[in-house]
Amino acid sequence: HAGWGGRGKGRAMFRAEEYFRNDSINLALKGDGQNLGFEKIADKFSGTKAGELANYYAGSCYLKLNDYEKAIKYLKKFSTGSDLVQARAYKLLGDAYADSGKNEDALASYKKAARHFEKDEANSPDYLYTAAYFADRVMKNKEEAVKLYKEIKEKFPRSQQAFDAENNLAQLGVYNTEN
Q1: What is the pTM of this model?
Q2: CB-based contacts of 81: which residues, under 8 Å, 6+ apart?
Q3: Local structure of 7: helix, strand or coil
């Protein structure tokens, strides 16, 4: 736990993460009286790895609790050197914006998630499809949706999402997408 910058911080993170994994969201967020929750860890250890991670977890917790404003607040503060986790945080931020009706911000976050770490061929096409589908079905922005569906086919041609994009393009009346 020395890497977390001290025993107390490591133990608190460990407990809070354990509560999170067990879906004890309020205990994960607020602590249990003995151990700090993600909110306090984020605040008290701001600027450290533990503090950063606590922002991510706190944002995730608030998303589960349908408190989108607080989810946005914590997820916007989060940043990490792990491209995989950062992309996931952008996706969660997109979800929080979408659920609070901030469609432009949601779309921007989904696109950011998709393009942040394109080497991740498991998640990137999924995030890009989420962006395309959101533009298509929620925002009714056909032009943006077509552009994003085509981007999926171009960047991830062998993915399930490329196949789904092809079907959605056809539904939008766009058939010749080879060029």
Answers
A1: 0.90
A2: none
A3: helix
